[in-house]
Amino acid sequence: xxxxxxxxxxxxxxxxxxxxxxxxxxxxxxxxxxxxxxxxxxxxxxxxxxxxxxxxxxxxxxxxxxxxxxxxxxxxxxxxxxxxxxxxxxxxxxx
Length: 95
Description:
With 95 residues, this protein is mainly β.
């Protein structure tokens, strides 16, 4: 009996969102299915699952910390304003 192991490269990156203050957000997957929507509060932690790339809208971007495989993701590349909208592919974000 053989067990096929999934190569590490096929494992989707672990993406976590952590909130340092309350923030509104909406995240959809590649098919446009809503994954997360609404108000989150300080201290909440969410794991992002679904089909990448994701479409992300953050209402208070300064209150959100995203980590990809344990590494912080630089949100400031998408703008310094409170509201940021961006497409996000964890596989491409590992820099």
